[in-house]
Amino acid sequence: MCRINKNVILALLTLTSSAFLLFQLYYYKHCLSPKLILFFLIRHHCRFVFSDGWFQIAENVGFQCLKTESKDPQLDGIDSLSGTEIPLHYVCKLATHAIHLVFFHERSGNYLWHGHLRLQGHMDRKFVPFRKLQFGCYPGAFDRPELQQVTVDGLDVLIPKDPGHFLEEIPHSRFIECRYKEARAFLYHYLEDNTVDAMAFWKRAKELLQLAAKTLQELGVPFWLSSGTCLGCYRQCSIIPYSKDVDLGIFIQDYKPDIILAFQNAGLPLKHKFGKVEDSLELSFQGKDDVKLDIFFFYEETDHMWNGGTQAKTGKRFKYLFPKFTLCWTEFVDMKVHVPCETVDYIEANYGKTWTIPVKTWDWKSSPPNVQPNGVWPISEWDEVIQLY
Fold first, then answer.
1. Predicted local distance difference test score (pLDDT) of residue 130
2. Does domain 180-388 have CATH number 3.30.420?
3. What is the pLDDT of residues 284-328, one digit of tens each?
4. Which residues pair with 322 in a beta bridge?
5. What are the extents of the domains in the chain?
6. Which residues lie below 8 Å from residue 124, measured CB to CB, with a gap of 6+?
7. Are 42 and 18 within 8 A, CB to CB?
């Protein structure tokens, strides 16, 4: 059986003794079941790892190492800071074994972030089989884990107290960075609204989003930023000050009957309920100071997704079509939240190709390019599908 010298691993672990470590052994040449030694390092716990001294010691015990660093994406566009390099991935190999160090950086939204393993032109693409690495194909975001110390083969390491949750996060961890540089350019061109009213709305909308996220997370209901909230996130990395509401999307298969009660118990009374679970469901809750929370439920067809709309006075129904999408994490108003991974396609479906230009007059029944008539609710069903409070 292929084995790596434990003393070699111990020498490297000694340098990262305060780090968060979770590892498997990767035989990238001779063994049939390739696995990887993964070290997940919370940055502020392991300063020495960043220095060339770590590489010197690694090389002294026989390793060849490759490191990838990059500018901090959150500082993109800030000239005085954008040159700052942060460590992203270190890959070291010894004979037929490889060690992959993935640097997790703490972020203000109380989560951990790791960057993309992007090879530069001068780097050896045959150094290890990069395509088989479990981390680095794209940036990732994870809940901040509570750690515990364990002993594995005589080595003291820190691992998450709930390793199962961490492992479950891995296939769904893909992260999309806010377009900070473009957002700054947008706000410079169109002048950021810093009036008292705009700042007050921003604060209320942020609090409402935090409360909605907490409520849905307690229910185990996944959601994403939708409509104007998604547009604000992608276009200007913030809440659109004239939008007057917070918009979320939920797949209809994730609907739970106790959603309404949970929001009411959280202090958000139901404002209206349109449609029904089988067709065009939409919920709206009243937040503080007339800021409302709209939840749109999405239905999947063979080649597209859609959510419904209902006009209360006439019973007319509308359908909003979207190309199929998956969900990724992003950071928005100091929160880790989901947005469609195919963000541009999603936004263009809802707002057209001119979405970069602010529009303050908007008719939900006719302005969206993806809206189409969907008949009229039978009057006999109005008591069920049109409920106003």
1. 86
2. no
3. 999 988 899 999 999 999 999 999 999 999 999 999 999 999 999
4. 305
5. 6-172, 180-388
6. 66
7. no
